[in-house]
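We now fix the convention by which a protein and its fold are recorded. The integers have meaning only within a learned vocabulary of local backbone shapes. A record is reproduced here so that you can trace the correspondence yourselves:
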Amino acid sequence: AWPQSGYPRLVLDWDGNGVIDHPNDGYYPMSLSVPDTDVTDGADYSVFLTLPPGGNPKIRFEATSSLGQSAVYPASGWLPGPTIIDANASDLYIYADDITYSTFPDIPDAGEPVVIAVEVNNNSPTPYPSVPVNLYFNGQLARIFSVDLPARDANDNPGTAVVTMDTSFSQTCLVQISATVDPGGSIPEWDEDNNSARILMPIKGCLVTPQLLATAGWLGSYYPNVQVSSSGSGWYAVDGDSLNPAAGATAYVILQETGDTLTTSQLDNNGMFLYSFTTPLTTGPYNLQIIVTDGVLADTVVRPFEVVPTNQLNLTIDFALTPYYTTTCSSDPVLVSNPMVYNNGTLPSDTCVAIVLHDSGDTLLIDTVPPLQAGENYPLSSSSIPVLDTQKGWHHITAKVDADNRLPESNENDNIRYRDYRAWCCGNDLAPGTITLGGIPFDSIPISVAVAVCNNGGLTASNFDLLVEAVSGTTTDTVALFTGQTLNPFGFCHTYDVPAYQFADSGWYQMVARVISHGSEGDCDTSNNVLLQSVHVESRSSKKPDLVMQPQWIDPSDLNPGLGDTVCVNNADVYNIGEATAYNVVVEYSYPSLGWVAVDTVDSIPFYGANNYSPSHPQACLVVDSCYQDSVALQVCVDPGNQLPELDENNNCASRNLKFCRCVDSDGDTFGDPGHPENDCPVDNCPYTYN
């Protein structure tokens, strides 16, 4: 039964509705823990609970003193609680650090072959066969894989599978690589939000250079040897315009005075990271250097902090902003909530003045703070202070205690607290951001078109259309029309994909992306609803493809099949590095020395970016019915009869050597090793041996 008495206590809001009203909600007294070395003053309390799965748990902590004083953390709102899941629940996931590329930490040159690898995880007691995994480049579907995901093991390690793709990029400067497991949502999971992840891979030699930008929370004053926690974020930008979170990058937290790395933290899919460190034992000013890097690009943030003596006066001030944004500046304010002055020192304070200011110079609050005992706090206002902005953009609120620096303190810099927020001053503000073609456009050849639309307002755009057109002279053709769309606010962007569009003729076109708003919230800035982009369409007749096959792109199922085994071609990538799409392409698999041939026909192989063809057909399988002393060549040829005119006809074939019925010494040394005869291949089953 609840409520329960006793302090300090944990307050649990299991269902996350902000009210203690659910049978799983409650007040839980905390017990004094065994003293540990991390506690330098005060005491360490803890509570252990068994919670049912589900809900949306939120928590806070409450404490009282023998003097009747009280404290709540956080001062307002709730902390996110633990996610409680059923042990039998399923969860498939991909994190940003599960996506890698073969040249890392170097970035590839334009056109350089690179292998993209994605590790897929199954944190479930159930294995799942034939799970689809989609791989995208710049929002365009590059390949669909099918993987068998094993269940997690007895040590609770997730089951994993890795998919890879050989590719190259020549028409872009920055590649967004993203992957999604179970894109259709056919497998029920307790967390459907971690099925996708993405990273950005720059390409050398680009005219437009992306940046990695970082920020981090400001720090204050702390006693020696205490734990400090804070957060930060990183994102990619070009010419100051934000592109994507720097998911998968690493934040290195370094004490600048010594050069010691205190901790590292990885950025999540939203580009956020958390970190904590222990303050030095010696009092004085310090600087925290935070380097955020993806191994190629980097940015550095420096945050000062102070280590202060324990036997000193130390006044601090804090407040909360609710929410962290505004929608319409004229009527929807940001609230300065719970402004509070704390005496975090060990000596009592005298009367002083506290003030809260807006960056416009307006005074939001001024109050006289009475004398405070050590550990005591004083609320500056019993109600929230509304802030109405008139100018769109970032703003900050400054709060300062002992505003005239009248009281001698261990750290005067700790008297100030800044909090930033963004004023959108707009209901919704829809703007097409980019129009991207999936390569060099040619007349009468299908090409993908992607249009990014962003909502730079503060409300969700509930009902709008996106019209994409191609204009040539007096002729206007509709590329695509997306109707009844919704888009989240606060700078959220979404890419709308047109899988295949054909330009009728060569020459110059004007691509037009137009947003048409029908929602009740309207659009506060219609001047940016239309994006124009010029595109030159090449003539198909003047260009040729160039089909390429290389040995490393041929993947047989077994390089050393035994008598009676079946060997298949798992994969054979055909690349088109030419100037035009190749149509009706013949791909031939053969063992020339055996007179065995299998043929496949591909409708088309585009010539741009990472496009390739990966056949995997049962007819490309051979049953080994004889043993051979020499290697047997598996050859793959694209356009073997040279029916297609190409830029280079000499790079269409490649081969891999296989060993039919030949054994490998399993201990890695020579055959007939007297020290390890048990590792030699049996002669009757293996007529030919090699080292």
The chain has a mean pLDDT of 81. The two ends are 74 Å apart (CA to CA).
